[in-house]
Structure formats: C-alpha cells, structure tokens
Amino acid sequence: MLGRLFTVGGLTLASRATGFARDIVLAAVLGAGPIADAFFVALRLPNHFRAIFAEGAFNAAFVPAYARIRQQGGPDPAQRFADRVFTLLLASQLVLLAVALAFTPAVITLLAPGFVDDPGRFALAVELTRITFPYLLLVSLVTLYGGILNALSRFAAAAAAPILLNLSMMMTLALAAFFPTAGHAAAWGVFIAGVLEVLLVGGDALRNGVMTTLRWPDWDEDVKRFFKALIPATVGSAGVQIALFADTIIASFLSAGALSALYYADRLNQLPIGVIGIAAGTVLLPEMASRIAAGDEAGARNVQSRTIEFTLLLSVPCIVAFLVVPELIMRALFMRGAFTAADAAAAAATLAAYALGLLPFVLIRSITATFLARGDTATPVKASLIAVAVNVALKIVLVLMGSLAQVGLALATSAGAWLNFVLVTWFASRRGHFVFEPRLRSVTARLTIAGLALGLVLWLAHPRAALLFSQADSLREVWTLAVLAAVGLIVYGSTALALVGKDWWPRK
Fold first, then answer.
1. Residue range 435-465, pLDDT digits in tens
2. Are residues 109 and 223 in the same domain?
3. Whole-angstrom distance, CA of residue 287 vs CA of residue 150
4. If you average pLDDT over every residue of the chain, what do you get?
5. Tens digits of per-residue pLDDT, 229-248?
6. Are residues 243 and 349 in the same domain?
C-alpha cells in the first residue's frame, strides 16, 4: 500500500507543481483584477458541481460498490454494473450541461450577485462560464474511469490527469494575444484539458479491458445499493459546496481582488490537501473496502491508523510554513507581472487563515474512509451538514460584522473543517470503526514537537535569510524562501527522525 500511496502522492505532487507553474502564469497575465475575478467565477462553477457529483459523491459511492461486486462476483458483474452507471452518469451530465448553458446568466446572478452592478464583469463571467462548463461532463467521465482503475489498484492515469489541465492552461495563456482576453485563453485551456483527460484515463481503462459502454440501466440490487449510497453522499458533498458558494457570493460584494486572493490562497492550501490528504484517502478507501469485504476488520483499522500517521508526517511542515511565513511564500511564488505586493499581502493573510484548518482537511478523508468502505455514506453527511451550517453562519458574521473581508471567509472555512473532523471522528469512535490507539497518540505528540521546532527555526531564520539576500532585487524572496525550505527540511526531518524513529512505518 505504501508504494501505491507514493505513486498517487508523487503524481499528485507533479500535478500541484505544474499547478503552481500555471498559477504563476495566471498571476502574471491575469493579476488579481476584474478579468481574473470573472475567470475564477467561471472556473468555480464547474468545479463546484464536479466536487458534488463527480469526485465527491460519486467516488464515495462507486469505488466501494465496484470493489465489492468485483471481489464477490468477478469481472463480468462488475463490468455490467459499471456500464449501467456510465449510462446514467452520461445522461444526467448531458441534461445538466444543457440547463447550465441555457441559464448561465441566472446562474451567475445567483453565484456572484455582486457582479450584477458591474456589467463588464458580469458579461465576461457569463461568456467564460459557457466555455468552461463542459469540463464538468468530461471530468465526470474521467472520475468514472478513474474509480474503476482505482478499484483495480491502478492509480497512475487518474492521478496524472490533472497535470494536463495545468499544461493546457499554460499553453493557451502563452497564446493569450490570440484571444479576446486572457480570461478567454484560460477558459479554453480548461475545456481542452477536459478532452485530453478523457483520452488519457479512458485510454488506460481501454487497455485494461474495463472501458464502459452504453447499457440499459436495469434497476437491479447493485444499482439500488449504489444510489442508496450516492444520494446521502451527494447531499454531503453539496453541503460542503454550499459553503464554497457562500465564499463566492460574499466575495463578489467585496472590493476587486478578494476573489483572486481567495483563489491563490486556496491553491496553496490545496497542495497538502491534494498531495497528502486526498492521495491518502484515494489509496485507503479501496484498501479498507477490500479488507472489510474479506472480514479483516483489524487489518482495516491498522492500515487506517498507519495512513493517518503518514499523513501527519507530511502535512505538519506545510501547516507550520503557512502560519509562520505566508507572505514570503506569496511574494516568492506570485509577485510578478500584474500581481502586486498588495495582492500578495491580501493572499498571505487569507492563506494563514486557511492554514488554521489545514490539519482537519488533510485527515478527514482518512477518517471518513472507514464509513465509505462499509457503504455508509450517510454518517459523514450528518457531520458535514452541521459543520456547513456553522461555517456559513460564521462567514456572514465575520465578513458582514467586521473588517476581515476574505480573511473572514477563510477563518470560517477553517472553523467548519475542525467541527466536521471532530464530529466524524466521534461518530467513528462511538461505533468502534476508529480507535485512537496508543501508538497513534504517541506519533501525533512527537510530530507536534517536531512541528513546533520547525516553526521556531523558521521564525528565527526568516529575518536573517532576508538580510542575506537583501541585494538580490527581484529574486530576493525566491532565494529567501529556498534557504528557509532547505533549513526547514533539515530541522523537521532530523527532529521527526529522532523522535519517531526510522522504522515507524511497517515494511510489508
């Protein structure tokens, strides 16, 4: 399992690395002004629906069901099940696409009402959304093929697919002079990426003999059981997206650049969430589902605890860096071209607020896996909906009753993440699905000490490193960040090794 985790994590890291390159290009070309805000709204809309229907609810319901059917009945029943789900998924996505394209102005009015008083931004957001929204249909197919391949312990193609989005957007942004605006160039890059991703992951499914075909969706027990899991999972995913919709709606009333600050801060925050948290959950879910289907409950709990330990090891330094030197990170990565020092400061404050909730974000997939592997998608929904209600209420209070602007939105998101994590952990512990065993407690405490040591070193070393490169002009922040990263890696790595030990991960 460790090898598969490194495969997914490594490819996800490559995806995030190319994503950073993409965001650097976006920041330089789009900056954080009206065109950027319009594009980020156009990008968020298909991403919201993708998170609800595709990567969120669909994976949670489909992967355990497909793995169970294949383990208990063999390849043929699993293929029939996948074909029926493919037919239903394609039909529903075509209907959703037609509705979205027909009513895009109304959707933008709902999603970004602050744009209504700015005809230029509103019209541009509508136009760009009509270009980006078909990406949802394409990435839904990618999710289906990826889920089938994941159940076969083949993770590479699906993990590599997002790299194509980054490369495609950089290509079209490089040709921005040939488009009406840079926002149009970025939007077409999203659409082209969807086509390329389908070809990549669908091609891998074809090579492995699991490509789906249209089949009349008979309402058999497997399909019924799938929808029984899908419906609450969709409600739960929709609840999370409501909170993100609230971000977009409220930020559209704030000054220009607020949406962009949220975007750039969230992109950095998503690095550990994607590379570590989601990668761990992607590998853990089929592993736990297979073990539970075979009656190995102890083995399932053990692999879950070891995954949590590994997730903590990798995520602690990210949390510390985002809290201690967020502005240096933003300036080093994005402050060039149209992205100013003021933009970097706004995004840095937002990143620090997001970092307060990073720990529950990276761990939540590993905790909910114990429910999803058992076909229980309803229990995580209860925790999610309670957290979303608190999250949205806090957004309104912190933004409308104070002067925190988009930072208040990020703080509310972090508070909601902690509440969600605490609730789902409590539910899992009460049912005996999760045990905070002595070894896990010990590793958590020791990694906390290593993180505190890292934070102290970064805090002390930052001004000295900045002074060392004070004459480096435009590369001053880049060199400062590089030195702090090297020093931090040595300090955290050696401290964690000394406290936890080199043999803490099982070799089997």
1. 888 888 989 999 999 999 999 999 999 998 8
2. yes
3. 10
4. 83
5. 777 777 766 666 677 667 77
6. yes
**Cα–Cα distance for residue pair 281/484, rounded to 1 Å:** 30
Which has more confidence, 247 or 407?
407
The crossing angle, in degrees rounded to 10, of helices 221-251 and 104-111 is 60
Say yes or no to pLDDT of 56 above 80. Answer: no
85 and 197 belong to one structural domain: yes
Q: Is the pLDDT of residue 170 over 80?
A: yes
Tally of domains in the chain: 2
Of the three residues 383, 410, 436, the one that is the final residue of a domain is: 436
Higher local confidence (pLDDT), 254 or 406: 406
Q: Which residues contact 315 (CB under 8 A, 6 or more apart)?
A: 272, 276, 277, 358, 359, 362
Q: Which domain holds residue 502?
A: 441-508
335 and 350 both lie in a single domain: yes
Alpha-carbon separation of residue 104 from 44, 93, 180, 403, 491 (angstroms) = 13, 16, 20, 32, 51
CA atoms within 13 A on the CB side of 312: 23
Q: Name the CA dihedral angle for 322, 323, 325, 328, rounded to a multiple of 10 degrees.
A: 50
Residues 206 and 352 both lie in one domain? yes
Residue type, 409: L
* Final residue belonging to a domain, choices 409, 436, 463: 436
Chain Cα centroid distance, residue 81: 28
Query: Residue 506 — pLDDT band, cuts 50, 70, 90?
Result: very low
User: Is residue 397 within 8 Å of 249, Cβ to Cβ?
Assistant: no
Co-location of 291 and 387 in the same domain: yes
Q: Are residues 130 and 24 in the same domain?
A: yes
Write the CB contacts of 10 (distance below 8 Å, at least 6 apart in sequence): none
Q: Is the dihedral of CA 443, 448, 449, 453 positive or negative?
A: positive
424, 304 contact by CB (below 8 A): no
Cα gap 508→222, rounded to integer Å = 34
Q: Which is nearest to 424 in space by CA: 467, 484, 495, 364? A: 364
Measured between alpha carbons, how far is 322 from 481 in angstroms, rounded to an integer? 12
What is the Cα 154 distance to its own chain's centre? 20
Phi, psi (degrees; rounded to nearest 5) at 473: 55, -120
Closest-CA residue to 284 (of 304, 268, 255, 258): 304
Separation between Cα atoms, residue 230 and residue 146, nearest integer Å: 17
Structure tokens of 381? Answer: 């929904």
Rounded distance, CA 255 to CA 323, Å? Answer: 25
For residues 40 and 132, membership in a common domain is answered with yes
